[in-house]
Design a protein that fits this description.
By secondary structure, the chain is mainly beta. Helix content is 10%, strand content 32%. It has one domain: Umud Fragment, subunit A (Ribbon). A hairpin with a 2-residue loop joins strand 6 and strand 7.
């Protein structure tokens, strides 16, 4: 092999290494890509939405790095999240990344009664938001089947859920979905400890969140160190099994703000 050819191979290797290093720094310090794999945040986020998580929003912990490799104790440059933020966090026991809405701040009391959220002893207002409709068919790469308030309905039929608009005490309004009367529609009163947060999915009857303790398969109240970042904007969305199925792209969701 000639010297010129060897030099070309070395330069190619250097270019690849530099590109990987830059990508790693970008992912660690600034933005992390995140695909929505489940329906727990419908209809705010749909299966197949692709977004970048703003990792600068709340500061950095060891979970900010891939494989939890950052040698950080606690959080660096910590900033408090706002109630109503849509947050990506690391599950405290199974190592998965979850995305939910921040409902309870440190010191809050949180309860759900008859499907209505109560914060600090007061019901959170809900207004009628009509219905959310989708086709009952397998969704996303995991081929999850949506749950419907009008079940039983067959594949290809219209799947309907009741929608409400919930307005949190700081004025943040967002839609929530109701499928059925379920066990998490009525909870004990939870008091959020200092340095921890209470999360819920917008698809209230189909969400693994803080209403259920970690010990019995939920999320429980989450210490601040597990926060990864804030979801601000959907960059791309595909309703199909693969992002390469261009005929399933949802162009109306490209660059859509997360509210």
């Amino acid at each position: 092999m000639s010297g010129t050819a060897k030099d070309g191979i070395v330069e190619t290797i250097k270019t690849v290494v530099y590109a990987l290093l830059i990508a790693g720094v970008f992912r660690t310090l600034f933005y992390q890509p995140f695909w929505i794999p489940s329906g727990s945040m419908k209809d705010t986020l749909l299966i197949g939405d692709f977004l970048f998580v703003n990792k600068m929003a709340y500061g950095y912990s060891r979970y900010s790095c891939p494989f939890s490799a950052c040698p950080i104790s606690g959080r660096l440059w910590s900033a408090e999240p706002d109630r109503g933020d849509v947050v990506v966090f690391r599950h405290p026991t199974n190592g998965s990344d979850f995305i939910k809405r921040l409902i309870g701040l440190p010191g809050d009391t949180v309860q759900v009664k008859g499907g209505v959220l109560w914060l600090n002893g007061q019901p959170v207002p809900q207004e009628d938001g009509g219905t959310f409709e989708e086709v009952k068919a397998p969704q996303g790469s995991q081929r999850n089947m949506p749950q419907c308030a009008n079940d039983p309905v067959g594949q290809g039929a219209v799947c309907v859920k009741e929608r409400k608009i919930e307005t949190l005490p700081n004025g943040v309004s967002h839609s929530i979905l109701n499928i059925r009367d379920s066990g998490v529609d009525n909870t004990p009163i939870y008091t959020v400890p200092e340095g921890q947060y209470f999360f819920m999915g917008d698809n209230r009857d189909n969400s693994q969140d803080s209403r259920v303790p970690v010990a019995v398969g939920g999320v429980g109240m989450l210490p601040a160190e597990y926060l990864i970042g804030r979801a601000d904007r959907i960059m791309f969305s595909s309703a199909g099994k693969s992002l390469f199925f261009f005929w399933t792209w949802r162009s109306d969701r490209f660059f859509k703000a997360v509210e």
